[in-house]
Amino acid sequence: MLGQRRLYATASRFITSARPTNGFVGAIGNTPLIRINSLSKETGCEILGKAEFMNPGGSVKDRAALFVVEDAERKGLIKAGGTVVEGTAGNTGIGLAHVCRAKGYKCVIYMPNTQSQEKIDLLKMLGADVRPVPAVAYDNPNNYNHQAKRFAESLDNAVWTNQFDNTANRQAHIETTGPEIWAQTDGKVDGFTCATGTGGTFAGTTRFLKEASDGRVKSFAADPPGSVIYSYVKSKGKEMVRGGSSITEGIGQGRITANLQPDIELIDDALKIPDSATIHMLYRLLDEEGIYLGASSALNVAAAYEMAKALGPGKTIVTMMCDGAYRYQSRLFSRKWLESKDLLGAIPEHLQKYIALA
Predict the structure, then answer these.
(1) In this predicted model, what pLDDT tens digit does every residue of 96-140 receive, in sequence order?
(2) 61-160 maps to which CATH number?
(3) Band of pLDDT at residue 10, cut at 50, 70 and 90
(4) Which long-range contacts (CB under 8 A, 24 or more apart) does 35-39 make?
(5) How far apart are CA 283 and CA 276, in angstroms?
(6) What value does the mean pLDDT take over residues 82-95?
(7) Residues 308, 314, 318, CA angle at the centre, nearest 5°?
(8) CA torsion, ordered 273, 278, 280, 286, to nearest 10 deg
(9) Are 323 and 297 in contact (CB under 8 A)?
């Protein structure tokens, strides 16, 4: 009997007040906020990463996927047995494929043919009809987003969820991500930074944190090479310079989306993070923290590190750890691929032991 009591006492330490969720969609959100110990110690700040890889579909895009589908349902744009169509570089598609399976919809995904094979395979395993198309600029009528829109319009009982300009995406983060961060830090957050793809995560979270703090929380946009956001913010909207390219997937933009536009004036500054800093941070986090992140997440953490140094010691900085590295491992942990991108030298010798693939 005593043994059973001890067992129960031990188990009770791991029991929370949360009840079982209502299926897959009920498990989306309420992700942990993880202190990145090594970077916090180095900077004298609290650097915290929102563990979005712990969403049931494995990324922050589960939130947007749920909100855009339920927005379509409320508006009567889709009914039982209908088809959800989206143009996506990967994670939104994966979130949509999960949500569609949970709700009984068909799912069709148009995506650039530059995306990792792991993402494409996962989408197919989730039952999505995946249609890789050549990667062309947004102003080209054959851009994957425009193809998705045209296909949805050709079907009955179908909706193009339009993640880039459907502000239900942004609303997901006003209603969930921002309030979670505020509660998890007891309102003591000083800075928020992450990259933008659709702009929904960055804009929605920024909007909530700015309003909750009466403007006190600083918001820095993080940007990879090849995106215009950095130049747009730095020039106060006068320039949109797009040069170079990046290893990151699903972030960076050549325009200001409808999700980002309402909150563009709330951005305090921007940080351009080179791929060398991103890949270095990715390997450093694996070695020092045991955290296995994709490149976009590593870029966000690198931006949080730079923001902490800019704001000075004693501040609490939050960023988004969007997804894990397993969706990109055939690239990020391949010596041949790293060499092809001239990034092997960005990884210190003592960290190259993690390069597991030829």
Answers:
(1) 999 999 999 999 999 988 887 888 899 999 999 999 999 898 889
(2) 3.40.50.1100
(3) very low
(4) 36/285, 36/289, 36/291, 36/301, 36/304, 37/288, 37/289, 38/284, 38/288, 38/289, 39/301, 39/304, 39/305, 39/308
(5) 11
(6) 92
(7) 45
(8) 140
(9) yes
Predicted local distance difference test score (pLDDT) of residue 9: 44
Identify the pLDDT of residue 116. 78
Looking at the whole model, is its pTM more than 0.85?
Answer: yes
Given 50, 61, 210, 315, which residue is catalytic? 61
DSSP H helices in the chain: 2-12, 23-26, 37-43, 61-74, 91-103, 117-125, 144-153, 168-172, 178-184, 200-212, 229-234, 275-289, 295-311, 329-332, 335-340
Looking at the chain, the domain(s) classified CATH 3.40.50.1100 span: 25-54+176-354, 61-160
Determine how many CB atoms are found less than 10 A away from the CB of residue 262.
14
β-partners of residue 291 are none
Q: Has 61 been annotated as catalytic?
A: yes
Among 229, 209, 227, 211, CA closest to 219: 209
| pLDDT tens digits along 268-292 | 999 999 999 999 999 999 999 999 9
Residue 15 pLDDT > 80: no
Q: How many CA atoms lie within 13 A of 133 on its CB side?
A: 21
Which CATH topology does 25-54+176-354 take?
Answer: Rossmann fold (3.40.50)
How many C-beta atoms surround the C-beta of residue 63 within 10 A? 27
Give 250's pLDDT tier (boundaries 50, 70, 90).
confident
Contact 207, 266 (CB under 8 A): yes
Q: Which helix (H) or strand (E) holds 191?
A: strand 191-195
Strand order in the sheet with 158-160: 129-133, 106-112, 83-87, 158-160
Phi, psi of 95, rounded to the nearest 5 degrees? -60, -45
pLDDT band (50, 70, 90) for residue 32 = very high
